[in-house]
Amino acid sequence: MSSSSSAAIVTDEDGSRPPSEMITGDASGFDNATTKTYAFSSGNPRIEETRGVMHLFSSNNSENGVALSPSPNRNLPVGRKPLVCVLGVPNHMTYADFCQFCASFIQQILEMRIVRTDGMEDQYSILIRFDRQDSTDKFYQHFNGRQFNSLEEEVCHVLFTVDVQFTGYSGSLEHPQPYPASSTEQPSCPVCLERLDQDTSGILTTICNHSFHCSCISKWTDSSCPVCRYCQQQPEKSICFVCQTSENLWLCVICGFVGCGRYKGRHAIMHWKETEHCYSLELETQRVWDYAGNNYVHRLIQSKTDGKLVELNSHCMHAKDNCGTCDCIDSGTSEALLNSKVEAIVNEYNELLATQLENQKLYYETLLQEVKEETDKRTSEAINKAIAQKLHRMQSKLDKRVKEKKFLDDLNENLLKDQEIWKAKMSDIEEREKMALRAKDDKIKDLKEQLRDLMAYLEAEKTVEQLSISNEIKDGTVLPMSVDSSTSNGTNVGKGKKSSNSRRG
Questions:
Q1: What are the Cα distances from residue 279, in Å, to 254, 289, 411, 470?
Q2: pLDDT tens across 88-124, in order?
Q3: pLDDT (tens digit per residue) in 328-371
Q4: Alpha-carbon separation of residue 237 from 73, 116, 215, 244, 255 (angstroms)
């Protein structure tokens, strides 16, 4: 450990570890222009807190005190160590999230220590020591300037670490249990109870100074410590509802009013006098004060020494006589008084608890009734709205079908009218066709008669010619008639036929 440490670090049996020697060194050999100094702290501020300073290689590209990602062709700093610092990790990232983020290098990591960096709200930093320098360089080149995830804008800022110096320690030293200097026994992991050996598995030290195997803490998905439940993501600070101060605050356990104590604006006491809500919780110590009884309502409180629950010291009933102890009465009487006090306290506590539970029951039943009424109202409104929408859709469909029916009726009526018109036209056409066929038949019949007469005439003429050649006609000469004249005029043909018939006769 660096000689600049001002106090010894206590190692507890519950897994907390002192700062390792691997992250200390000497930064005097480097120029201040090439390094930057960041003050940090670790531990639960209510129990213990370790403070220190880390010297990091600076970058030419810097903004608001956080080194940004250099260009890929930039040479790595000379004199670097297998020790880096990841600055500005968002508080919502749990230990398991970060272990998963750097899972490809988890086998090369010997130790990780989470610290709070001064001036960086809602962020923390991680000091990482690797087994080899080339693994450190690869980690720097791979993760520097890379986003923690694709959904957020936070970027991983990795800087090589020159030196880490622990400058102070504040906490309880009443019952220190340091390991003997000659002892080689290593602390164990609170999860798997195996020894914390850097050679077999990487070690992660949380922000409250409790150490675990990286493989064990990576399965812990909560942001709190598995040992002390200290959460790295602290809730927002409360303020007094009246004067807006953030010191000496008391919370009414009945209605949730936050007011300052009697040493500030006395708004918590004023709230008790106005509402008669006599139970108030001190936010700093988590103790409940009874304004009516003017004392704490419980016998177990959280010790500021180690954060554990201890019994609240009871005062002697003769303290007003400056007795100071209870040895003034015999043990039997003391035991009887103690039992009666305990029984009275238990009865009072049970009665108080029953009253408060009954009040809470009524309160939450009222809330449930209101929620039920609101739910029924919203359900009824939703049902009515759905029914109205459905009726509107059905009415729209009905109107559409009525319009379609009217259109079809008009179309059917028009088609019937067209059918009657076409029927009349068909009748006229059939009549005209019949008349045309009748005229055609008459003409064909007339033509057949003419053809028959013509054939008879031709046969008669042929017969006459044959007779004229073979026999001598005595009474005259028969003159032949022209065929064209007979065909062109049917009447003449008929006359010729008659004349021929008459001659034949």
A1: 7, 6, 86, 167
A2: 888 888 888 888 888 888 888 888 898 988 887 778 8
A3: 444 545 565 576 677 778 877 888 888 888 888 899 999 999 99
A4: 45, 17, 33, 11, 19
